[in-house]
Every structure is written in C-alpha cells, then in structure tokens.
Amino acid sequence: MKDKKLKIKNKRSKTSRIEEVITLAHGSGGRLMHELVKKLCRKFSNKILNELSDAAELKVENRRLSFSTDSYVVKPLFFPGGDIGKLAVCGTVNDISMKGARPLFISLSFIIEEGFKLSILEKISDSIRKEAKSSDVAVVTGDIKVVEKGAADKLFINTSGIGVINYKGRVGSKAKPGDVIIINGPIAEHGLAILNARQSLGFKSRIKSDCRNLSFAVARCLRASKKISVMRDPTRGGLATTLNEIALSSNLGIEINEKCIPITISARRLCDILGFDPLYIANEGKFVCFVDEKDALKVKKAMGRASRIIGRTTKVHKRQVFLKTGIGSDRILPMLEGEPLPRIC
Amino acid sequence: MIKGKIKLMEVCGTHTMAIAASGIKKVLPKTIELISGPGCPVCVTSQSDIDRAVEIARIKDVIMVTFGDMMRVRGSFSSLDDVRRKGKDVRIVYSCLDALIIAQENPEKRVVFMGVGFETTSPTVAASILEAKRQKIKNFFVLANFKLIFPALEALSKSKKVKVDGFICPGHVSVVTGIEPYKRIARRFKKPCVITGFADSDIIKGIKILVDQIKKGKPKAEIAYRRAVKEKGNTLAQKTINRVFVVRDSFWRGLGLIKESGLKLKESYACFDAEKEFKVRLPKTREPKGCLCGKVLQGIKSPSDCRLFGKVCTPSNPVGPCMVSSEGTCAAYYKYGV
After folding, report:
1. What's the pTM value of the predicted model, to 2 decimals?
2. Considering CB atoms only, which of B68, B85, B312 is closest to A9?
3. Which of A157, B115, B132, B236 has the smallest C-beta neighbourhood within 10 Å, fewest atoms?
C-alpha cells in the first residue's frame, strides 16, 4: 500500500505543478500559511520564536517584555469603520496586549508608491496619531521608503511595538484542560466590511470594521483573574483558525457551541448571500480568552457587555476543534483551507 | 413498506455543504442515507470545456473572465489560474454584468466570459448579452457552458448503477424553474421530488416529506420552500433564457453526454458566441489518474472511497473538480470531516 501511495505522489509531481510559488492562499491565515511559517521558522529556531504566538515574550533584566511586528497592506486604504493607519496601530497594539502586556512604544514604517497623494498620506498619519494617543502608546521611531510606480500598491505600513508585562501568571499559547473560552463580541465584521468595500459588491450593508484597540479590555481581564492561560485575537483565518492553532499548541481538544457564537444579523445574512462561513472571516477588534472555570464569569464581565462564553477545552479529541451545530449534531471545525471565494450559484 | 435503506440524493452543491456543515447525517436514523448529486456547476464542467477556456485565455489581447471557483479547476493540462500566473489576463467576477463593464473599459481587447452554472446563473448571463446587444458592445463574448439540471436528474433516475429513492431538489434553481419540471420526473420515474431550502430546518423538513411520501408509496413533486419558490417559478427569467439561448446536447463530467442538457447562444446572438469567435485546437482530453470525481458526481462512490482523497488531493492542492469547488462533495467531506 505504501508503494502505491508513493507512486501516485511521484507521478503527480512530474506531470502537474510548475514550480511551487507563493499564492494568495499562503497569506490568508489558513493551513498553508501555518505550514509556511513553520517551514521558515525552522531556519531561525530559538526558544522564543518556537512558541509561534503573535508576540514574543522577552526577559530583559528581570522585566518581561512583549514584542511584536506586523505589516499592513489592506486594500482599500479607507474602509467603513477605519483606515490603514488605525489598523496599523490597533493591530500591533493588540498583538502586544495578547501576551498580557501593557503596550508602550511603537515604530512606524511607510512603503509608498510613487505618485501617492501627500494629502492622503497626511490624513492617514493623522489617523495614526489619533489612534496612538487613545491607545496610550508613543510612536518613537520610523522610516519612509518610496518605490517606483507599480512596485507597490499605493501604501504599505509596518509597525512594531513593545509593551511591558506586569501580570503574575503567564499568558502564553498553552491552554489548560477545562478552560472556558470567552469572546468579547460578534465576529466576522472586519473581513466583511473590507470585502464589501473592495469588491464593490454593491450591497448596502451597515457592517463596519470592528477594528479597535483591545489593550484596555485586556488590562481589565488581567485585573479580574490570575488564571488566564491564553489570549488571542482571531484576525486572518477567523475564529476557527485561531482556535485550531490553540488546540494544536496546547495539545488539547476544543468544543464550541454554534448557538453561543455572537454574530450580528447583518453579518450573518451577508455571509449567507456570499457563501462564506463567518467563523473563517477576519476580525480586528475581537479576542478570545481561555480562563479557569472559576474565574470565567469575572473575566466575561471584564470583557464587556457583548462578550459570550462559546465553549471549553477538553482532554478528548486532542488537537481538534469540534463544533456543536444548531440542530444538536457535531462536526470538526478545521483550519481555513485556501483563500475564501464567494460561491457562484 | 420500505425494504433496506432509503437513499435520498441532494442534487445541489449548496445542499451538500449545508448538510455537512450542520451535521445532519449524524442525527439521521441509520436507515436514511444521503448521497450527493451532480449539482455543482464547476464539478460537472467537462475537461474539454475547461481546455477550450484555457486555450482562449492564452490568445493575445484576450481578457478571460470567470467565477472564482472556476479558476483552479484543471483541464487536461492546466487551469485558468496557471494561465494567469504565467502572465495572461484572467479575472474573477461575481456577476456577468461585471464582465460587460470590463469589456466597456477595455475596448481594444476581447473580453470572454466563461459561464458555467444551471438555471440560476444563465438568466443573468442572458440579460448581460441582451444589454451588450442594446449598447452595441462588440468586444464581449460568452463561452456558454450552461447546463440544465432536469435532463441530468432524468439520466440519474434511469441509471441502473445508482439507486435513488427520492430527490432533495435545489431551492435556488427552483426559484427560476418552478415546480413543473419536477412533476414530470415524479410522474415518469416514480421518484418523489421535494424542493428544499438551505437552512438546517428546511433540509430536515424536506427529508421528512420525502420519507413520508416513500412510506405511503405516492411519489410526487412538492415545494417545501414556499417563502422563495413559486409554482410557476420566475417567468421573466425563463423568458430571458429562451430569448438568448437554445438547448443543445452537453457533456457532463461523470455523467457523460446527456441529450438536450445544455444551452448555447441562438443564431441571432452568434456575434457574442466565444466558440464561434475563437477557433482553437483542443488537446486530447486527459482525466487525472485515480480521481473518482466522475463516480462521486453520480453518487456511486463516496469521496472517502477515493485513494487520492485527503492524501494527494486536498483543497489547497486539488486533483479533481469536486475538491476545487467550494460546493464540491469532496471539499465538503474534507472540510467537515464527514
């Protein structure tokens, strides 16, 4: 049997693929990206990196720091509920916060395509200033590069940032068995808002991106409980992919209940029309918290009024996420495969 | 009374997905089996139709436009996505009218819309062609690979290879066609047909009605999706189809040649027909080795019977069309671990 399998593989590699190239699916946050990240990380392997969480936890002279970087290439630059500038601050601030840290400083780099209007750049910079101020972080260093027309799409931004961890416990990537999973509000809004704006699908939708800074909500949670094991913001790949990553890194099973997952009616309907599963759609202002059952209600309260308990971790079906469906059945909830595209009929 | 298992076929790809996503199969009694049918337009598009699209996309100054799912389906040698990666202009649209806009914006190029789909999709394409004619757009062409679902249902009902006791009929298609064509199938082949919506409760209701009919031994066509489907369907859409298209024989992946099961452009609209505009030489068609998509589409085999399934063939690296399409049976089985 083994030989047979091998044969199929060999044949396929001869006849089918040209050279393997990076596709958009590699950047969609799903399984392919996960594999690519792992492959590349092997080259730089070290204890801190191997955790593969959104931010690195560093120990410097008895202080614990959280350090993270992210690039922003969102298209269009302005979308309902935000713009690339706001996103660039919130995204990095949120990644730092997910380690249980208080974000302090960020860097800011622009890559600008020749011909880009200065007025728009100033507008975006104003948005960055505003968001940094309200997030209580300072932009302390930066860089500008301009590339010839066609070498970049209008504007790309990179931000990196550091924060300091004062939390007694350790918020990492490993959940504990029996942890309760809480999310702070309705899912899928950022992805849908961008998609609707980008593709000019022509749906008059009120959906706005949920893009916002989470550091204060995180701080409230940290004050509420000392038993938080994991915090993570489900961005690209959506809630389903984030939960899968946590199931893998914790070597535990996860069970969530479809009925408990918050989603607005308008987001649900837009997903139905386009044939998307909201569990795979990006969020920019949501986070999930894995916490000991005893403290679950306290943390839920700290996470805000829209927060919901969506499930828990289990010792059975390790490394997999199971979804209890609306009709009382259950099924596997896998990672995102490929790039989500709307259906055609 | 009923002997053995009741086999119900969900014809539509959207049903296949909805059934897998809600886990309905797990809560059904063991005596009811759901099998997936040929109702995913991407999956049933024949190799040679894809080959033709690929060859046309390679021609200089052509912009090939199609639906997202169609991009990655491989023909005999390559897919439209491969052609795009090699630098040709292949674009994704959500509606044929967008293709028309591309044609207006690029008057120096020839824009070809590769159209696949059933009765749900063809009216909008017909409307686009009428609009192109009204606006006298000369650089817009349609590669019509549209199919009709009823001849396929008849072929499946006649088939000796697969035993189907009843059909869970596609809600979307029925919005256009109405119930009349199903009545013919129910009468001729004694198979109950229930037009069903896509919510979990809709599907369960559809299954219940089918099982009741089978128990009573009185097969008929019924609408269990009244909030969307009317008896007569959408007559305007039907008329639009008939104005632009005529019926022709069509080749289905898995099912083979089915008489009068496809649509082509009428002579009076021949100036928009990509098949007439572009004479291309097609390679000899070649099916991927070991791929069971053809049998899966007929409901003879289940994806898990396929040696390639989940090992060589995954949604990120699909071999057959049923894995490419977001509504394909293999994709549903892979994604939801059915």
Report:
1. 0.84
2. B312
3. B236
Tally of CB atoms within 10 A around B206: 26
Q: Is A18 a domain residue?
A: no
Q: Kindly tell me if the per-residue pLDDT of A243 is higher than 90.
A: yes
Cis peptide before B283 (omega within 30 of 0): no
Q: Could you tell me the maximum CA-CA distance found in chain B, to the nearest angstrom?
A: 67
With CB atoms and an 8 Å threshold, state whether B326 touches A343.
yes
A132 with A221, same domain: the answer is: no
B233: left (phi over 0), alpha (psi -120 to 50) or beta: left
Mean pLDDT across chain B? 92
ipTM: 0.77
Domain segments of chain B: what residues?
Answer: 6-40+149-223
Task: Specify whether A139 is located in the same domain as A81.
Answer: yes
Question: What is the span of the domain harbouring residue A250?
Answer: 180-332
Name the domain count of chain A.
2
DSSP code string of B61-117: TEEEEE-GGGTT-B-SS-BHHHHHHTT--EEE-SSHHHHHHHHHH-TTSEEEEEEEE
- With respect to residue A64, please indicate whether it lies within any of the assigned structural domains: yes
Distance from the A225 Cα atom to the nearest Cα atom in chain B, whole angstroms: 35
In three-state secondary structure terms, A221 is: helix
Distance from CA of A196 to the nearest CA of B (A): 12
Fold of B6-40+149-223: Rossmann fold (3.40.50)
Measured CA to CA, the distance from residue A104 to residue A96 in angstroms comes to 9
| pLDDT for residue B83 is more than 70 | yes
CATH of the domain at A150: 3.30.1330.10
